[in-house]
Amino acid sequence: MANDLVFVYGTLKENEPNHHWLTDKENGESKLIGKATTQERYPLVIASKYNIPFLLAAPGKGEHVEGEVYEVDEKMMSNLDILEEHPKLYERKKDKLKLEATGEVIECWIYLLHKYKPHLLDLPMLNAYFSRGSHGKTYIASEDDLSDPENI
Ligand code: PCA
Description:
By secondary structure, the chain is mainly beta. It has two helices and seven strands, in the order βαββββαββ. The strands form two sheets. The protein has a five-stranded antiparallel β-sheet with strand order 1-5-2-6-7. Strands 3-4 form a two-stranded antiparallel ribbon. It is globular and about 40 Å long.
C-alpha cells in the first residue's frame, strides 16, 4: 500500500522531544523528505499546562509555519495518530505544503486542533516551534488524556 506524507511542525521535528517516535523502527518506517512551510497561514501557539504546540484550524490567521515532511508507512501513520490522539484531540487533515528545497507544493497530512477555546487565538503566534525557544514554555511530556480539547 502507498506510503503517506506527513508534515510535522511541533514536538515531532528533529531535535524536539517526540522526534524519537518517528525514528523508532518499532513504530514503523519514516524517511525525511525535507523542510517545508504551510501554504496557508495558521496560528501556531503553545498552550495547556504541558506547553503543547498546537496548530489551530483558523487558516488565514498567524504565520506560514515551518516544519518537516516525512514519508511514513501505514504502521507509523497509525502510531502517530495514537501519539496525537487523532481524532479526539488533533485532527489529521490533508493540506498544502511548500518544500523549501525546490519550491514544489505538495499535499501532506497535518495535525490541527479544531475544537479549541477562542482565548487560544490571543496567544503569541509562532512561525516555527522549538520546545526550548526564548518563549520559556518548555514541553512537558505527559501520559494524561487530553482528549477533551475543552480543557486546553
Ligand atoms: N506533534 C505534532 C503535532 C504537534 C506536536 O507536538 C507535530 O509535531 O506536528
